[in-house]
Amino acid sequence: xxxxxxxxxxxxxxLLIALVILAGxxxxxxxxxxxxxxxWYVMTALVTILLYVSSTEAFWEExxxxxxxxxxxxxxxxxxLRIAVFLVLPLVVGWYFSSWVSGAAEPPGGLRVVHPAPxxxxxxxxxxxDLKAVSINPLRADESRLAEHTxxxxxxxxxxxxxxxxxxxxxxxxxxxxxNPAPANFQDPGTIAQLSESFLFWRIAKGGPGLPGxxxxxxxxMPVWENMLTEEEIWQVVLYLYQTTGYKPRVMDEGGHGGH
Length: 260
What we know:
Blueprint: H1 7-29, H2 35-53, H3 57-72, H4 78-102, E1 121-124, E2 127-130, H5 146-160, H6 162-165, H7 197-206, H8 231-245
Antiparallel strand pairs: 1-2
């Protein structure tokens, strides 16, 4: 007869799997989960596990038996283990929540450059793009399809971007409170109104990891959207940002890229 896994072992395995998914898999394929949201997800997993182990009297008795033995049993092994658990567990929990709440203790490295100088060209999936030569969004060349491209940009934005940058493009998305610095507020006249469309293409495509080495640390959680979106999709999102905010993109001239 196949031996059944004890209920308390199942509970531990489920919790470990949840932690691996939240701390490892999700950031690897998407974006880092803000600390506060991560804490809520862990609490949800713990409550779900507790509901599962208490769903029947037999499950609860099997789950509670080793805990009861740890708390009440006497013996040369049990007592030191009990003392270790009562000392280590509060310390670990206290350390986690204190570090979660307090944040980093180091002062900032210096004044943060809001709009870094873009490179003269970028490599997009093996294709070189001369940012100096792209004075306007190439999708604007065909006015008959401009509305179609803008609508596609809206769909892409709501599938990928609004979680951080917000439904109103104001940087107040669901995840915004978990980031420092906060996601860009596109409604602010000091953001995209001061930038060229090629600057936005570069920042979206390369994300935080693509920022220049100068003026670090940037501390940007912006994903590398080049890995998830096509060149046309990024240009469509750029169209949508300007169309929705009502701002006109800055046109590059001989003096620079239209960014600061």
